[in-house]
Structures are given as C-alpha cells and as structure tokens.
Write a structure and sequence with these properties.
57% helix, mainly alpha
Length: 90
C-alpha cells in the first residue's frame, strides 16, 4: 500500500468517515496512442482505491465513440477486471 494510502485510511478512520466509492477516472483507455500506458496506470490505482472504499470504478474512456475505441475500452476493462480479481479486489 502506498504511504499516502495508509495516511488517508488512518485519517478517515480517525474522523469516522466511510467512503463508499473512489472513482478512478484519470487516464484514457480508449486513446489510440496511450491506452496501454493509461490502462497500466489505472490498474496501479485499483488496489489503492479499494483500500479506501469498497468500490473503485474506472472510466470506460474519454475519446469520441468509434469501433476501434470501443474495442480498446472493452479490452482494457476486461484486463483491469482480471487484474482486480487476481489481486482479490473484485
């Protein structure tokens, strides 16, 4: 767990605050040039987000609709779901 994650979890607990969800929306898994980089970045935040809240949804992508973008989005989301299950986060 990242140091900031530990500090935030401690502060939330001390304040009696319960987060229900942490949205991971930075990055664009549909970007033609950077989708792999962004998928990996998002994947690195899933376990951190889940350490703060029981739910950590991710963005499906930001580029305008296209068949190629939809295919990149579906592939990335499948890969992220597989990674989350492997980390026992899903």
């Amino acid at each position: 767990m990242r140091p900031i994650s530990t500090k935030l979890r401690g502060a939330l607990n001390a304040a009696g605050v319960e987060l229900l969800s942490v949205l991971i929306e930075t990055g664009d898994v549909t970007d033609p040039d950077h989708h792999e980089r962004d998928r990996d970045w998002i994947g690195g935040w899933i376990d951190t987000g889940r350490s703060w809240a029981p739910d950590a949804p991710v963005s499906r992508g930001k580029t305008p609709y296209s068949e190629a973008g939809m295919a990149r989005s579906k592939a990335a989301l499948r890969e992220l779901a597989k990674e989350a299950r492997r980390k026992a986060c899903a």
